[in-house]
Design goal:
The chain is α+β, with helices and mostly antiparallel strands and about 100 residues long. It has one domain: Hypothetical protein apc22750. Chain B (Translation Initiation Factor IF3, 2-Layer Sandwich), CATH 3.30.110. The chain is built from two helices and four strands, in the order H-E-E-H-E-E. It has a four-stranded mixed sheet with strand order 1-3-4-2. Strand 3 and strand 4 form a beta hairpin. The N and C termini lie far apart (about 55 Å).
Length: about 100
């Protein structure tokens, strides 16, 4: 009986590991960035987002990518970039979902 339970457990785990599934981390590639709020009244404000980078060198692109990832977690597809630090290591904005 014990052996049967072990075999069933191994088969179950193997089946789960072999399944294709949706990635845990949402994709930030499809998020449009702008400095203007969306014109479409159907767009929903999902709240403030921030991005930062821990780097010796200024890395504005890295900070923006970090902000896009946070917006993706909220379900956004449009991002309004509002502020950037003077050291180019932090940015903030507002995430929106536009149908």
């Amino acid at each position: 009986m014990k052996k049967l339970i072990q075999i069933a457990l191994i088969v179950s785990v193997g089946t789960l590991l072999s399944c294709n599934s949706t990635p845990i981390v949402p994709s930030s590639e499809s998020i449009k960035i702008s400095r203007e709020t969306p014109k479409d009244p159907e767009c929903k404000n999902l709240g403030r987002v921030q991005g930062k980078t821990i780097s010796v060198k200024p890395d504005l692109e890295g900070a923006i990518e970090d902000m896009k990832k946070e917006a993706a977690y909220k379900g956004a597809n449009y991002l309004v970039m509002e502020t950037a630090s003077g050291y180019e290591t932090a940015v903030s904005g507002t995430a929106y979902y536009c149908p």
